From TrEMBL:
It comes from Octodon degus (Degu). GO terms for cellular component: cytosol; dendrite; glutamatergic synapse; membrane; postsynapse. This is Neurochondrin. SUPFAM superfamilies: ARM repeat. It comes from the Eukaryota. The lineage of its organism: Eukaryota, Metazoa, Chordata, Craniata, Vertebrata. Belongs to the neurochondrin family. Pfam families: Neurochondrin. GO terms for biological process: bone resorption; neuron projection development; regulation of neuronal synaptic plasticity; regulation of postsynaptic neurotransmitter receptor internalization. Transmembrane segments: none annotated.
């Protein structure tokens, strides 16, 4: 066959097999075209390449361009099969006088036609061509060659068809398509816009896998897009706003990209814009805020003004969307604004190295207060039928972030909303799987779930814990929470979350938010112990909680890196033990003895004697494990000492148990080995409280303290109550 014949055969794509003309036509009459059927028969019976080419030409003449429907296309495939296109795609030699890509172009045209059938697009013979097709995207050649351009178009149609199948993106990623698309886009050759469109689709479908397979190439695309965004002066900058969020990596964003993105956003948001222009910019800013916090915003006057502008625009958008009844809420935009408001809350509450000046903070808090008022207004109108909608979850999240830092303002409105929040949290807690799915849907509204940054909690209750911790201190809100059943819900939640940290679970893979949530629950319970002791005594859920605390603390105090949680559990358990001292579970049972032994371990290991250069006497110093977290620990430690002191007269078996642990003897020994001047008055008071109660409760304790020079130590530290107690028989 001559090159002319071969070129004529290539016109097959132009007539009916070219990918661009392979879309199904309107159904024709049921009767088949006898001429076409005869030519298809010749195609099936072809014995060599020349006969196959000739038959393909005949088929082309019988079928007008755009006339091929799905059934006809399938019959052509049945006649041709994959063997012939496979040979064309792998052919390295073209007939004399023909371009070297002509055979491959015809093979790709056939393959593109077949890929128009979704069933054929997933055929193994198509999928194993992905690496070959990907190489065509970056092959060098004459950019003005029409045949080469047609081959590139057909290649994109093949890959796009595969990408549209359920498992297609995974096959494309494994076949190296992502890197090829990146290189094709960066080369800005023919079809580079198609490369970008397909990249966007693959990132939307399988972001994590794309970055895992082609991170360097995707970062190169991000650099190019960011630079284009920073320089753009026309409408393309708004289109880039929509594309760029998909190209932010799950790892660190390169600094040069952050600079370009911030500069581009500053120019856009600083201009007077319509909503369709502003909204994509707000969504891009929200992605950056979620991924990088405020690190992408430059320090100094320009950065503070930009941040204030961002938060201001977000608050205005929230108020416009939620205050006006009857208007359709653009949930993705408002969710993005919520993320920017969270950034504003974080910066307004940051004491050191904040981007904002104090006057700016005051102004933004006032603006955010109005926006939060709009959020509360919206949530008050949410009925049971909407409680499982992602946007409601997002609205509860931003309210939780606000309440974690500010509960004094909008108190009346917050109290009015509390019954809804308790019911909402209970509903999502009882349907935990749906809550996790809601969290994912919220993230997808405006923020990619694989972007680094704070995780979106999978339950509403964790979002509300910090705010409830503040509210349980106040009489009014606390009474509402108790009336609505929040304490019982919190106990159930705590016990469920505690199971995740119990033996048999890999705690190393747990997010930090689980442990933080447990600590916050402890703080809420501590507030209730102090402000509502009657509730602790009468509600059965607290008996279950006490049992869990007693059985869990012995193992917890032995675990490295969990001292702060152990402090919360020990202190809460000691305070509850005072209120539940008549419970059978606390009458010297193995669990109660194990708990108090662990509590003594926590309290006794906080301080050590430390030698100081140039001094004959050691000083009292924090233990290494306690030293780094003492700022967060000390209040719990002092409260725990006070609670233990209160338990001693209520539990007769406790003083002998403490004596067997040698805590009173070792405590007196520690005080005797250090300079009294190194022991702060509050430490002296805490130690004296424990020693006095132990001495009063048990004669053997008094004798052991005397043998440990207790009277002399008490005199040195001016512990009058202890000195008097030890002087008695």
């Amino acid at each position: 066959m001559s090159c002319c014949d071969l070129a004529a055969a290539g016109q097959l794509g132009k007539a009916g097999i070219m990918a661009s003309d392979c879309e199904p036509a309107l159904n024709q009459a049921e009767g088949r075209n006898p001429t076409l059927e005869r030519y298809l028969g010749a195609l099936r019976e072809a014995k060599n390449d020349s006969e196959q080419f000739a038959a393909l030409l005949l088929v082309t003449k019988a079928v007008k361009a755009g006339d091929i429907d799905a059934k006809t296309r399938r019959r052509i495939f049945d006649a041709v099969g994959f063997t012939f296109p496979n040979r064309l795609l792998t052919s390295k030699e073209a007939p004399d006088g023909c371009p070297d890509h002509v055979l491959r172009a015809l093979g790709v045209a056939l393959l593109a036609c077949f890929c128009s059938d979704p069933e054929l697009a997933t055929h193994p013979q198509v999928l194993n061509k992905i690496p070959i097709l990907s190489t065509f995207l970056t092959a060098r050649g004459d950019p003005d060659d029409a045949a080469r351009r047609s081959m590139i178009d057909d290649t994109y149609q093949c890959l796009t068809a595969v990408a549209g199948t359920p498992r297609g993106p995974r096959h494309l990623i494994a076949g190296g398509t992502v890197s090829a698309l990146c290189q094709a886009y960066l080369g800005h050759g023919y079809g580079f816009d198609q490369a970008l469109a397909l990249l966007v689709g693959l990132l939307a479908a399988a972001e994590t896998q794309c970055w895992k397979e082609a991170e360097p190439d995707l970062l190169a695309v991000l650099r190019g897009l960011s630079e284009d965004f920073q320089k753009a002066e026309d409408a393309s900058k708004f289109e880039l706003c929509q594309l760029l969020p998909l190209f932010l990596p799950p790892t660190t964003v390169p600094p040069e990209c952050l600079r370009d993105l911030q500069a581009g956003l500053a120019r856009i948001l600083g201009s007077k814009l319509s909503s369709w222009q502003r909204n994509p910019a707000l969504k891009l800013a929200a992605r950056l805020a979620h991924a990088c916090g405020s690190d992408w915003i430059p320090a100094g006057n320009s950065g503070s003004k930009f941040l204030a502008l961002l938060v201001n625009l977000a608050c205005v958008e929230v108020r416009l969307a939620l205050e006006e009844t009857g208007t359709e809420v653009k949930e993705d935009v408002v969710t993005a604004c919520y993320a920017l408001m969270e950034l504003g809350i974080q910066e307004c509450t940051r004491c050191e190295q904040s981007l904002l000046k104090e006057p700016q903070k005051v102004q933004l808090v006032s603006i955010m207060k109005e926006a939060i008022g709009a959020v509360i207004h919206y949530l008050l109108q949410v009925g049971p039928e909407k409680q499982k909608e992602p946007f409601v979850f997002a609205s509860v999240r931003i309210l939780g972030a606000w309440l974690a830092e500010e509960t004094s303002s909008l108190r009346k409105e917050v109290c009015q909303l509390l019954p809804f929040l308790v019911r909402y949290a209970k509903t999502l807690y009882e349907e935990a799987e749906e809550a996790n799915d809601l969290s994912q849907q919220v993230a997808n509204l405006a923020i990619s779930p694989t972007t680094p940054g704070p995780a979106w909690p999978g339950d509403a209750l964790r979002l509300l814990l910090p705010g409830w911790c503040h509210l349980t201190v106040e009489d009014g809100p606390r009474e509402i929470l108790i009336k609505e059943g929040a304490p019982s819900l919190l106990c159930k939640y705590f016990l469920q979350q505690w199971e995740l940290t119990s033996p048999g679970h890999d705690t190393s893979v747990l997010p930090d938010s689980v442990e933080i949530g447990l600590q916050t629950c402890c703080h809420i319970f501590l507030n209730l112990v102090v402000t509502a002791p009657g509730l602790i005594k009468r509600d059965a859920c607290f008996t279950s909680l006490m049992n869990t605390l007693m059985t869990s603390l012995p193992a917890l105090v032995q675990q490295q890196g969990r001292l702060l949680l152990a402090a919360n559990v020990a202190t809460l358990g000691l305070l509850m033990a005072r209120l539940l001292s008549t419970s059978p579970a606390l009458q010297g049972t193995p669990a109660s003895r194990g708990f108090f032994a662990a509590a003594i371990l926590f309290l006794s290991q906080s301080h050590v004697a430390r030698a100081t250069p140039g001094s004959e006497q050691a000083v009292l110093a924090l233990s290494p494990d306690y030293e780094g977290i003492w700022a967060d620990l000390q209040e719990l430690w002092f409260l725990g000492m006070q609670a233990f002191t209160g338990c001693v007269p209520l539990l007769p078996w406790l003083a002998p148990a403490a004596l067997r642990s040698r805590w009173p003897q070792e405590l007196l020994q520690l005080l005797g080995s250090v300079s009294p001047n190194s022991v702060k008055p509050e430490m002296v008071a805490a130690y004296q409280g424990v020693l006095v109660e132990l001495a009063r409760a048990n004669r053997l304790c008094r004798e052991a303290m005397r043998l440990q020079a207790g009277e002399e130590t008490a005199s040195h530290y001016r512990m009058a109550a202890l000195e008097q107690c030890l002087s008695e028989p």
